[in-house]
């Protein structure tokens, strides 16, 4: 199961990561919804994926 960053629930990727940590369920991961990313620069996308160990 993946949690995505959506403005209705979390305002940015950091809030999504914080929520994921608070839930504390190992099987819950982050799903990157690329159209909702704050920046489309390749280095920013790579950094987000690496930081969150994301599912794309």
What do these coordinates show?
With 56 residues, this protein is α+β, with helices and mostly antiparallel strands. The chain has one domain (2-52). 39% of the residues lie in helices and 11% in strands. The chain contains 2 helices and 2 strands; from the N terminus they run E-H-E-H. The protein has helices at residues 13-23, 42-52; strands at residues 2-4, 29-31. Strands 1-2 form a two-stranded parallel ribbon.
Compute the CA-based radius of gyration. 11 Å
Largest sheet: 2 strands, parallel
* Strand line-up of the largest beta sheet: 1-2
Question: What number of structural domains do the residues give?
Answer: 1
Backbone shape: globular
| Oligomeric state of the chains present here | single chain
Helix content: 25-40%
Low-confidence stretches: none
Strand fraction equals 5-15%
Topology order in helix (H) and strand (E) letters? EHEH
> Structural class of the secondary structure composition?
alpha+beta
Instruction: Quote the distance from N terminus to C terminus.
Output: 12 Å
Mean residue pLDDT: 82
Count of helix runs: 2
Number of strands: 2
């Amino acid at each position: 199961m993946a949690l995505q960053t959506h403005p209705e629930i979390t305002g940015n990727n950091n809030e999504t990561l914080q929520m994921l940590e608070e839930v504390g369920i190992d099987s819950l991961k982050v799903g990157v919804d690329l159209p909702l990313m704050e920046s489309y620069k390749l280095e920013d996308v790579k950094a987000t994926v690496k930081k969150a160990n994301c599912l794309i």
